[in-house]
């Protein structure tokens, strides 16, 4: 489904926003520098409580974008998973799991897999809270998660 409304800030713009915010600039000045309204800057800052997010880092054993592209090229050439994994020094089971969790041999794409990996690595706190509060409270409580909503 297409997104409606005004486009948000790009990743680079958010990085600049936080750099300027840490330097003590006002939201009006930041918005002007980014070519956006101050309310756009306020929305980003307020969502994080005024604290810039910690830089994202990867687990040392995770596949890099370059390795995912190598997997994609190997699949396009019809190579066996064990052979694809041999070049970057990965086990065939690692490559098999990567391909399986991202749609299989026919639909695997490195960029989409990379984006999915980054999104899955985000901390689940907010999503879990929303899940417990609104959608499946019995299931969450059964798994030891407690709702933060007044009714749960």
TrEMBL record:
Region Disordered, annotated ranges: 49-69, 79-98
Location of the Transposase IS30-like HTH domain: 63-102
InterPro entries: IS30-like_HTH (IPR025246)
Protein name in UniProt: Helix-turn-helix domain-containing protein
Regions of compositional bias (Basic and acidic residues) in chain numbering: 84-98
């Amino acid at each position: 489904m297409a997104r409606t409304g005004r486009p948000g800030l790009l990743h680079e713009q958010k990085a600049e926003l936080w750099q300027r915010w840490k330097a003590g600039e006002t939201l009006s000045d930041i918005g002007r520098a980014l070519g956006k309204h101050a309310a756009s800057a306020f929305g980003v800052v307020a969502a994080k409580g005024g604290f810039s997010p910690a830089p994202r880092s990867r687990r040392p054993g995770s596949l890099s974008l370059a390795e995912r592209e190598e997997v994609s090229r190997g699949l396009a050439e019809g190579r066996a998973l064990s052979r694809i994994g041999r070049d970057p020094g990965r086990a065939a089971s690692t490559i098999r799991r990567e391909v399986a969790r991202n749609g299989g041999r026919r639909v695997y794409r490195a960029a989409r897999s990379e984006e999915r990996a980054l999104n899955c690595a985000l901390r689940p706190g907010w999503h879990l809270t929303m899940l417990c509060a609104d959608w499946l409270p019995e299931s969450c409580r059964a798994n030891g998660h407690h709702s933060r909503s007044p009714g749960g």
